[in-house]
């Protein structure tokens, strides 16, 4: 079959494109400018005829996707601004929500062969910042970030602005499906991933240009930029990028995934957990907080992944494996000795 992947040059989408091609799918990937597709075509040159790159300059423009949805069986929507330092919240909300709604509209109007729409959502749409530790599942929605952004606008935290953009976009997607349930010929799946780390395939000239989540990892684990308190107390849940790609493909292939949200996650971490593994493997890397005791770590946010286990059945890449592969790539790049 043929599938569409938006924002194909992004960190997550790159792995998704790779796995799709490996499994024999034909992929039409969108990028904001043709120049951003050059490295994709070069990376996947062994799959000529299977990969097509098209330019969609402004995803939020109505009708932007009308042509590209034609002839595809499924859509993976990944393009969205991912960083925690927006000024005006609309910088993220407009493309996130407008891109999602516009793509759904195009799929309904012109994507006659589309059977499934898979939205690359985020655990940002699920968990709330709160004092007491909690475990969240697919019934939970992070509306507190939306509220904060509505109340504070530019003064809301960067994390809240990003979380709000993802929550509003996913909510808009489910609302679209509900509003058009008699007209759409496809179902919707939303995959919620927590912090995503892992080796990258996209073109990154220098570490400072890594995507947002891997840059956080680089700063904390390799550069030692975080203080002891941060390393021992801050963290979340995480997943390796290759597992995110796998989850997306399985959610296309497994009939039962249709119409569902699905949280995928490898488990909790504190930044010092990654630092410990990295430092143990290579003593030249920072030791970080040497008094950290993992058994005393309090994890405020946990995700219940039993639904994904049942519906998708993924065996997650571990902290050790993910760390080893990231460091191997950094070495290969000459970024660390
Ligand atoms: P990247 O920053 O690597 O990729 C983002 C993609 O979206 C790029 O193709 C980028 O294009 C495109 N994009 C960014 N802003 C816009 C915009 N205003 N209009 C159109 N396209 C835009 O991010 P990730 O791969 O990390 O994230 C991909 C998806 O996964 C996102 O939807 C994100 O919310 C979600 N996600 C990411 C997590 C993470 O930890 N990384 C965790 C959970 C979910 P360009 O290169 O032109 O800027």
TrEMBL record:
**Keyword presence, Oxidoreductase:** yes
State the Gene Ontology terms under molecular function. Answer: oxidoreductase activity, acting on the CH-OH group of donors, NAD or NADP as acceptor
Q: What is this protein called?
A: NAD-dependent epimerase/dehydratase domain-containing protein
Keyword set, alphabetical order: Oxidoreductase
Top-level taxonomic group: Eukaryota
Annotated ranges, domain NAD-dependent epimerase/dehydratase? 3-259
Q: What is the lineage of its organism?
A: Eukaryota, Fungi, Dikarya, Basidiomycota, Agaricomycotina
Task: Tell me the Gene3D superfamilies matching this sequence.
Answer: NAD(P)-binding Rossmann-like Domain
Q: Which Pfam families match?
A: Epimerase (PF01370)
Protein family per UniProt: Belongs to the NAD(P)-dependent epimerase/dehydratase family. Dihydroflavonol-4-reductase subfamily.
């Amino acid at each position: 079959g043929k599938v569409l992947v938006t924002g194909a040059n992004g960190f997550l989408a790159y792995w998704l494109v790779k796995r799709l091609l490996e499994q024999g799918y034909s992929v039409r990937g969108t990028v904001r400018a043709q120049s951003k597709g050059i490295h994709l075509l070069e990376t996947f040159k062994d799959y000529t005829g299977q990969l097509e790159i098209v330019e969609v300059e402004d995803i939020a423009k109505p009708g932007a996707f009308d042509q590209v949805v034609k002839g595809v069986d499924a859509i993976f929507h990944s393009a969205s601004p991912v960083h925690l330092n927006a000024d005006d919240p609309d910088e993220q909300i407009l493309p996130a929500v407008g891109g999602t709604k516009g793509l759904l509209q195009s799929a309904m109007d012109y994507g006659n062969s589309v059977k499934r729409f898979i939205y690359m959502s985020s655990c940002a749409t699920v968990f709330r910042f709160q004092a007491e530790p909690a475990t969240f599942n697919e019934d939970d929605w992070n509306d507190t970030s939306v509220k904060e952004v509505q109340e504070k606008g530019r003064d809301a935290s960067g994390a809240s602005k990003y979380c709000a953009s993802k929550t509003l976009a996913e909510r808009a997607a489910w609302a679209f499906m509900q509003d058009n349930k008699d007209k759409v010929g496809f179902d919707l799946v939303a995959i919620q991933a927590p912090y995503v780390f892992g080796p990258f395939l996209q073109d990154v000239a220098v570490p400072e240009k890594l995507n947002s989540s891997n840059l956080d990892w680089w700063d904390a684990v390799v550069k030692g930029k975080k203080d002891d308190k941060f390393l021992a107390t801050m963290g979340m849940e995480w997943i390796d990028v290759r597992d995110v790609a796998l989850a997306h493909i399985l959610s296309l292939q497994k009939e039962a995934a249709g119409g569902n949200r699905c949280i995928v996650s490898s488990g909790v971490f504190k930044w010092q957990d990654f630092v410990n593994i990295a430092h143990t493997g290579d003593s030249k890397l920072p030791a970080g907080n040497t008094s950290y005791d993992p058994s005393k770590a309090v994890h405020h946010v946990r995700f219940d992944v039993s639904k994904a286990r049942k519906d998708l059945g993924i065996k997650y890449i571990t902290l050790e494996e993910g760390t080893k592969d990231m460091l191997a790539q950094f070495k290969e790049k000459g970024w660390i000795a």
